[in-house]
């Protein structure tokens, strides 16, 4: 406790003022510590903002368009959540009637076309030179390069 001499004539006045001064000093120290922590956090956030601005600049996104970009992303996320919520088996239409289904021959032809479209191009072979584009092998560069 601090030593204070007060001439008020009351014997406990010095002790009461000394205790009050100690409390105020302790509160001041605590507030100063909070202020220092807030200043450090502010400096860290400023550094983070500079890094984010540099990243946005590197990506070619103007700072004033970030809110729009965030809004569009949020809107797309909400659309995705809605689509996932309604994607249930009972929400899909009933099967097509028999008259609209492709025949077995048509189905086989469609499957073959899909398989051919998804098949990677074969490497060039010496025995085949395309008459349409002059490439070696079945490259699918033109209608003549397709092996079916």
Mean pLDDT value: 76
The computed structural class is mainly alpha
Categorize the overall geometry.
Answer: elongated
The oligomeric state is: single chain
Share of helix among residues? 55-70%
**How many helical stretches?**
3
Beta-strand segment tally = 0
Largest sheet data: none
Order of helices and strands: HHH
| Termini gap | 100 Å
* Low-confidence regions: none
**Percentage of β-strand residues:** under 5%
Question: What's the Cα radius of gyration?
Answer: 40 Å
Description:
Helices cover 56% and strands 0% of the residues. By secondary structure, it is mostly helical. Among the domains are: 13-86, no CATH class; 120-148, no CATH class. It is elongated, with a radius of gyration of 40 Å. It starts with 12 loop residues before the first helix and ends in a 30-residue tail after the last helix. 1% of the residues are buried. The mean pLDDT is 76.
SSE topology:
Blueprint: H1 13-59, H2 66-86, H3 104-118
Q: How would you summarize what this structure contains?
A:
It contains three helices and no strands.
Features:
148 residues, mainly alpha, 56% helix
């Amino acid at each position: 406790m601090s030593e204070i001499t007060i001439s008020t004539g009351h014997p406990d006045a010095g002790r009461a003022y000394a205790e009050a001064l100690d409390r105020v000093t302790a509160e001041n120290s605590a507030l100063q510590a909070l202020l220092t922590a807030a200043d450090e956090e502010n400096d860290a956030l400023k550094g983070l903002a500079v890094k984010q601005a540099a990243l946005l600049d590197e990506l070619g996104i103007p700072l004033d368009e970030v809110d729009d970009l965030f809004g569009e992303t949020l809107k797309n996320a909400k659309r995705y959540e809605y689509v996932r919520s309604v994607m249930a088996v009972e929400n899909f239409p009933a099967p097509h009637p028999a008259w609209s289904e492709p025949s077995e021959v048509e189905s086989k032809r469609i499957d073959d076309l899909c398989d051919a479209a998804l098949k990677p191009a074969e490497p060039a072979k010496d025995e085949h030179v395309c008459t349409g584009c002059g490439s070696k092998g079945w490259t699918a560069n033109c209608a003549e390069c397709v092996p079916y």
